[in-house]
Fold this sequence. Notes:
The chain contains twelve helices and five strands. By secondary structure, it is α+β, with helices and mostly antiparallel strands. Strands 1-2-3-5-4 form a five-stranded mixed β-sheet, covered by helices on one side. Strand 1, helix 9 and strand 2 form a beta-alpha-beta unit. Helix 9 packs antiparallel against helix 12. The longest helix has 76 residues, at 124-199. It is rod-shaped and about 120 Å long.
Amino acid sequence: xxxxxxxxxxxxxxxxxxxxxxxxxxxxxxxxxxxxxxxxxxxxxxxxxxxxxxxxxxxxxxxxxxxxxxxxxxxxxxxxxxxxxxxxxxxxxxxxxxxxxxxxxxxxxxxxxxxxxxxxxxxxxxxxxxxxxxxxxxxxxxxxxxxxxxxxxxxxxxxxxxxxxxxxxxxxxxxxxxxxxxxxxxxxxxxxxxxxxxxxxxxxxxxxxxxxxxxxxxxxxxxxxxxxxxxxxxxxxxxxxxxxxxxxxxxxxxxxxxxxxxxxxxxxxxxxxxxxxxxxxxxxxxxxxxxxxxxxxxxxxxxxxxxxxxxxxxxxxxxxxxxxxxxxxxxxxxxxxxxxxxxxxxxxxxxxxxxxxxxxxxxxxxxxxxxxxxxxxxxxxxxxxxxxxxx
Length: 391
């Protein structure tokens, strides 16, 4: 529960004020004059300023000590108002610099010694010891309180900066997702629209199939866009997806995506080697997006080329490769053209692999064509490894 600082200072002021009232009532029993109206007025003047000590600690300190020395000069018991003086000095020590605190420590010690001299104390050695010891002790406690407050402010600033960085990283992640969705589905739609336009008059059946493919691709694109917008509204990340309307695409939808690319005119072979193992949703999304981006590049830059997608499960790791078979039909991705298009897509592959502790190799193959090879650790305890991107 948060309490207003002024209320805290007011409650704090009650403590020395109560002690002063109790001691003032006992002054006569200790051999000191009974407090009259003027003395009680000075007691109030010494203790009430503590209510605003947080707003003007030095001014409150000076007012209290000035009134205290007047109170002592009138022949009253000095101990009555010493708690207020101690609280005022602690406030200065916990909020002001060492130089200001040192000056106030000298003032407090001097007033303390003067009070002992004016009152004719028989134990001046003890008074001098108190005049030196109390300021030093309170100075130390005040320093630690001030340092803790500074560290708290610094920590809050660092937390705010970390939150800003996380927001920026999340925006980059969302932009990558949007790129993957839009680029892939628009490439399919573009190819199918061109095919439908070309055969519209001569082959109505083929045109109808192409239009159906356009409808399916656009519907899936809209569904994924709705999913991402749902994530934004629920403050979730694409990899965790809690509360999303639909689950993130994973390996179970890989065949569906490959079929869509086949419908776009790219023959694709999907192969799985080894025994599949359970993978986290984030790793599955990484594999799905990398394969999607690789096939989209083939679809855009080498329509008609044959592509092969292979998932190879080995102990502790999963290797995913996407290559086009330039030897089978003489086609393939133009390496020079691909270099011109190295942008968000390939950078996205690089970042996804790095995020999940994997490696990725992207570039033209020695036997022709273009290839992507992604290796991801399947164990949650696998060490993060460096990643490479070659062109």
